[in-house]
Amino acid sequence: MKEVAKLTISCPDRKGLVARISDFVFRNGGNFLHFDQHTDLEAGVFLARMEWEVEGFQIPRERIADCFQGIALECGMRFDLAFSDDVPRIAIFASRMPHCLLDLLLRRQAGEFKADIALIVSNHSDVAEIAERFGIPFRHYPITPENKTQQEAAEIEELKANGIELIVLARYMQILSEAFVASFPNRIINIHHSFLPAFIGAQPYHQAFERGVKLIGATGHYVTSELDNGPIIEQEIIRVGHRDSVEDLIRKGRDLEKVVLARAVRLHLMHKVLTYGNKTVVFD
Amino acid sequence: MKEVAKLTISCPDRKGLVARISDFVFRNGGNFLHFDQHTDLEAGVFLARMEWEVEGFQIPRERIADCFQGIALECGMRFDLAFSDDVPRIAIFASRMPHCLLDLLLRRQAGEFKADIALIVSNHSDVAEIAERFGIPFRHYPITPENKTQQEAAEIEELKANGIELIVLARYMQILSEAFVASFPNRIINIHHSFLPAFIGAQPYHQAFERGVKLIGATGHYVTSELDNGPIIEQEIIRVGHRDSVEDLIRKGRDLEKVVLARAVRLHLMHKVLTYGNKTVVFD
Amino acid sequence: MKEVAKLTISCPDRKGLVARISDFVFRNGGNFLHFDQHTDLEAGVFLARMEWEVEGFQIPRERIADCFQGIALECGMRFDLAFSDDVPRIAIFASRMPHCLLDLLLRRQAGEFKADIALIVSNHSDVAEIAERFGIPFRHYPITPENKTQQEAAEIEELKANGIELIVLARYMQILSEAFVASFPNRIINIHHSFLPAFIGAQPYHQAFERGVKLIGATGHYVTSELDNGPIIEQEIIRVGHRDSVEDLIRKGRDLEKVVLARAVRLHLMHKVLTYGNKTVVFD
Amino acid sequence: MKEVAKLTISCPDRKGLVARISDFVFRNGGNFLHFDQHTDLEAGVFLARMEWEVEGFQIPRERIADCFQGIALECGMRFDLAFSDDVPRIAIFASRMPHCLLDLLLRRQAGEFKADIALIVSNHSDVAEIAERFGIPFRHYPITPENKTQQEAAEIEELKANGIELIVLARYMQILSEAFVASFPNRIINIHHSFLPAFIGAQPYHQAFERGVKLIGATGHYVTSELDNGPIIEQEIIRVGHRDSVEDLIRKGRDLEKVVLARAVRLHLMHKVLTYGNKTVVFD
Predict the structure, then answer these.
(1) Across all residues in chain B, what is the average pLDDT?
(2) How far is A93 from A280, CA to CA, in rounded Å?
(3) CB atoms < 10 A from the CB of C278, how many?
């Protein structure tokens, strides 16, 4: 596999953006492997994602972002540059249920995504053993109403000290404070066990059972300060029926949760997700 | 196709219900083609649906219900007896959008379900032409806040006079009053254009677009006095993405609405849906 | 809705293709609304699709293709240029079953795709009435082993005389000859009632029933000289069970056939499908 | 959870079967929790599954089968009686890829199904470590064309000696001989990585990639002497597109394989699958 540069861009729409960007890459000897672009005409927003081979590119990789800065400033672009051999450091937060955590660890092991799982954080100690088995540092931060502010501050400090670029909430059953969320904007992915916006909040499977729905779902989304209301990355559903108890919903739902969270994390790590208002554009 | 009797039963659970029922059918020379049963242990409710061939059954079909009454009373059963050659009379309510109405008419024509579509009712006159083409009486009941009570009373009278057993709201954009709903308990099926309970009320596709969901849905349900909160019969979803405008959601959703409403109506007409609290049991 | 130009391109991969193309559009005052690109590295094939607003573009629309010819020749491109206000002429072929034909006619009426359905062709006369109701010329070409060559020649002549750009086989139950297919390369879309390559040939629902599958499907594909083996545009499935008879499979399958064929036709008409070997790239 | 008896029955259809069976249960003080029945009128086959609480049943559990034998013989029934607290002994066969094996072990650990995974068998030694971690005896049976008959004989002996009731082929990449299969009729479940009958045999993902399908699938089925042609228990699909390489198909397929195999195994262990010709009836 050759090394590939990945550039994502969002900015106000104007004429010639594709030409400007592609000209920059082409003039410097790059060749696009992928070029995806979307314009929201109503909102006047331009969004794009591209990949090109680094080999033969005339700007050294560490200077590409700087060189692109001129165009970016001129066009008011937010952009993000990454490389296929980057190994971002991520932290996984879990509580008592280990299935999503374990699933991510096994997928990482199977090479389904590229990341250094640098920390496993929990408000309980149940998953400490799993962390140990996979050789990953485990941090136990019990949370009470009294210590929450303090504990979160310590967590933020530890996450920053470890250079964590993405936090994955793998069925972490604590609501993060606004301050915590603000420290990692669009850098926290949560799995919610319902097809949002149905069944926001606690015990969505119980809610679904009570309502008698014929489908249950799971939603992978970025965490914002508003509960279960951040930009949605991925959703999936499965059929249920009258023979399914709440326990069956929970069991069936675990499969959804694992798959949906893994897809959302993978898409994020491949720089395929751009946020935009309270929505995502997923260039898959 | 031989004539078949269909019996659905719900009652408090107790020992020997299956034996009592099957003994009744067997002693009278019947042979089960289908026997479906479900017990909700928590709620203590027994639900069953069965079919047997009428030919050779020793009780004449018009007397079967009477003969079963004894067991039913003893066990506190609600039961419903129907026959495969019954042709129930139904009314379809529509407003301006004709796709669900047309779809039901074409499915009826293709023999997908058995019913006499005896009336098409609308608060607008747009679908009058469709009614005429299919040779079905059309009734125009314009609704205003002022005339609603009066118009609904007239509708109820006409529906009763026509022996209507099921009302299908095929994208009928008026909320029925509590009095109207009470006149046809579990006899009104609505199609709501979202995966309920998400996006209750008006313009669910616009709500879905705003929220940035990755799936949109449709829900076929019985109408109760609480808006979009009746027992759900069937749900289905389809994937959407950032390139889909509200118009695309509406277009994709039409396919869901047609299919989900048709399935719900067909299941009801085949006596495969039992209601139970605010839920359904679908013996499919 | 503003007028939009749609350009699709496929060619051997080489450096700078995106830059060349986007420069052409930008220099002439165009602004991309969409730009989708895919490179198959293994096969060394570059594929792209783009849209830009015609208004303000400095080359008159009738001369754009000529002006682009230089780049195309230089890079060995196959390209196709279309405009959002084009109304391509299409012919629908049907046999006895009307559901796909009717579905396309109703979708056309609802504005789901833009095309002039200029001819309805059949080897039977069953759908003549539908053609008449929608005011579309109907051509009856009965096919026997003896007259097939002659009839197809007459069909081709009539299709060419009518400027037909796309032929849709809406459950047309005749196999087209190699000569016929060669006259409309990648211009004939068929709906096959199975998830190809399972159940090629006749009576796929019966085959599916015999095999006891738990899913049935439908496939929209371009017709090539090899039966049911052309490039696949779209596929969809639905769940079936032991209670489903062959008739149930046929009934459930009709919904799939309608939806899948409509999607395939719409994608083709929007110039979102590029063929490539025996595959398609669908820029949706 | 109370102890429950599970009885599955298949036999030639005749009058009064439901009455006979339910009378047997009722007379002995049983109360049905579930009663599912299906008659294939064409084939003249009656199939049923029922559950009742053991507590209060007047026949001791070890004598129920004997007591039922009379009815069974009279009606030509094949029947199977099991209890909710049974813990059947199963063996999992794997080769090099561990994902299905690991998935089953984790689901077992999470209590998703009840079984004693008594042996892990492989033609390679890659998964020995996993077996060890979960504390399950591992048997390494390398297979060559020369030793296959001998090795299989040894395997059969070991499986029988261990009282194995179900063999699960969790991506086991060896074709079992007819003799082996005949030793465990309808007791071997395989996961095939395609939506059968498409892509029988080797490398189905490569075949799917070459064919350019838009959906890939997985099939859980009983193994018979005819390759990939045994009764299908469960199937599922996922959407793929032109950006998916063979590696992406393999990755996406792993999720299907895990889920479909787990569902098939669970349904079998809950005695919800009846075979019938080359088909299954799944009373779910």
Answers:
(1) 96
(2) 23
(3) 16
Over the stretch A12-35, which tens digit does the pLDDT of each residue have?
A: 999 889 999 999 999 999 988 889
Note whether B72 contacts C: Cβ–Cβ < 8 A: no
SS (H, E, C) chain A: CCCEEEEEEEEECCCCHHHHHHHHHHHCCCCEEEEEEEEECCCCEEEEEEEEECCCCCCCHHHHHHHHHHHHHHHCCEEEEEECCCCCEEEEEECCCCHHHHHHHHHHHCCCCCCEEEEEEECCCCCHHHHHHCCCCEEECCCCCCCHHHHHHHHHHHHHHCCCCEEEECCCCCCCCHHHHHHCCCCEEEEECCCCCCCCCCCHHHHHHHHCCCEEEEEEEECCCCCCCCCEEEEEEEECCCCCCHHHHHHHHHHHHHHHHHHHHHHHHCCCEEEECCEEEECC
Q: A259 in contact with D at a CB cutoff of 8 Å?
A: yes
Q: Cα separation of D211 and D198, whole Å? A: 11
Q: Does the distance separating the beta carbons of C214 and D197 come in below 8 Å?
A: no
Q: Which of C162, C166, C17, C149 is nearest to C82 (CA)?
A: C166
The predicted structure's pLDDT at residue C41: 86
Q: How far is CA D67 from the centre of its chain?
A: 28
Is D248's Cβ below 8 Å from some Cβ in A?
Answer: no
Which of B127, B259, B282 should be substituted to probe chain C, the one whose Cβ sees the most C Cβ atoms within 10 Å?
Answer: B259
Using CB atoms, list chains with 3+ pairs below 8 Å to chain D: A, B, C
Q: How far apart are CA A121 and CA B284, in angstroms?
A: 46
Q: Is the pLDDT of residue D2 over 90?
A: no
Q: Is pLDDT at C61 greater than 80 in this prediction? A: yes
Q: D104 with D170: CB under 8 angstroms?
A: yes
Sheet (strand D89-94) strand order:
D138-140, D116-122, D89-94, D166-169, D188-192, D215-222, D232-239
pLDDT band at B2 (very low <50, low <70, confident <90, very high): confident
Tokens at D107, concatenated = 């689901």
Whether omega for the bond prior to residue D197 falls within 30 degrees of 0, making it cis, is: yes
Average pLDDT value for residue range C35-61: 93
- For residue C201, what pLDDT band results from cuts at 50, 70 and 90? confident
Question: Residues in chain A, how many?
Answer: 284
Residues of D in contact with C260 (CB under 8 A): none
Enumerate domains of chain B plus CATH numbers. Answer: 4-83 (3.30.70.260), 89-282 (3.40.50.170)
Gap from B45 CA to chain A (nearest CA, Å): 12
Largest CA distance in chain D: 63
Angle at C82 between CA C80 and CA C85, to 5 degrees: 170
Which pair of structure tokens corresponds to residue C101? 């034909």
Question: According to the model, what pLDDT value does residue A128 have?
Answer: 98
List chain B residues with CB under 8 Å of C282.
none
- Give me the residue label for tokens 């501050």: A153
* Cβ(A130)–Cβ(A111) below 8 Å: no
Distances (CA, A) of D243 to C13, C60, C66, C283: 16, 35, 31, 10
pLDDT digits (tens, 9 = 90+) for D92-116: 999 999 999 999 999 999 999 999 9
User: Quick check: is C40 catalytic?
Assistant: no
Proportion of chain C above pLDDT 70, given as a percent: 100
- Are B38 and A198 inside 8 Å of each other by CB? no
Mutation for D interface: C36, C39, C215, most D CBs within 10 A: C215
Say if the Cβ atoms of D212 and C38 lie within 8 Å: no
Q: Is the ipTM of this complex over 0.85?
A: yes
Question: Which chains touch B (3+ CB pairs under 8 A)?
Answer: A, C, D
Q: How confident is the model at residue A152 (pLDDT cuts 50, 70, 90)?
A: very high
Question: Dihedral through CA D267, CA D268, CA D274, CA D276, nearest 10?
Answer: 110
- CB < 8 Å to B34, chain C: 243
